[in-house]
Amino acid sequence: MEINYKELCLETCRVAKLAAAFIKQEAQHFDISRVEYKDVNNLVSYVDKTAEQMIIEELKKLLPEATFIAEESFKNEAQAKYKWIIDPLDGTTNFTHGIPCYCVSIALMEDDEIVTGVIYEINLDECFYSYKNGPSFLNEQVITVSKNEVMKKSLIATGFPYTKFDRTGPYMQVFDYCMHHTHGLRRLGSACADLAYVACGRFEAFYEYGLAPWDVAAGVIIVKNAGGVVTDFHGGNNVIFGEELIASNKNIADEFGGVVKKLFGY
Questions:
Q1: Cα–Cα separations (whole angstroms), residue 4 to 10, 42, 128, 191, 248
Q2: Predicted structure pTM score
Q3: CATH number of 151-263
Q4: pLDDT tens across 84-124, in order?
Q5: What is the mean pLDDT of residues 207-222?
Q6: CB of 201 within 8 A of CB of 146?
Q7: Rounded distance, CA 210 to CA 139, Å?
Q8: Which CATH topology does 5-143 take?
């Protein structure tokens, strides 16, 4: 079966918005006492779980043969040709505390390639999306990464580690370097939003480790098709399952990637 990536991507946008409507409704009266803890700073709620099931049921209708890699019900059938990679609520901690930055993220992997990606930032009603051999969009408008040419004119995004604390030393060295050599750093609390903002030029770069496939899969294709560069900390391509990622515009990719690689000792 030959897939029309554009049509499938647009249908995926519809599914993301359906889940987002439920999340937005629940945000109006959410009780933080109903939060569950996967770890001390890794939260989940009935909202995440319900939104994920809504998404899965809708995506089954679009591509019945596909399997799922989803945050709240992780399953990776490596031999499957098509795999949906889902984060039903990226930014759960923000959501539970009433901080308005959280997203729905849905990507489709065909063999080993991400072929569609959708990130819907719920509070701003911003839908970022892209598909194989297509441009990247924000609410139907084509987007591109920033044209800034040097780090000293750049704004950098990151996410604070909540696992693998033995790596916080080099992480903070990169943080310190960016404090002294860029316009500053921002931490939104949603890796999906960070990547979307690189794609549309709000940030020049983003770096983080401890990432899961559902944190980055949709953002990877959106950044790349917006003209950006995505690598792991070594400068390689192991970005979906490698648990670390740098995304940037092309102009500062070598400069920023070199800083991260050096300070992490690669």
A1: 10, 36, 18, 28, 28
A2: 0.94
A3: 3.40.190.80
A4: 999 999 998 899 899 999 999 999 999 999 999 999 999 99
A5: 97
A6: yes
A7: 30
A8: Fructose-1,6-Bisphosphatase; Chain A, domain 1 (3.30.540)
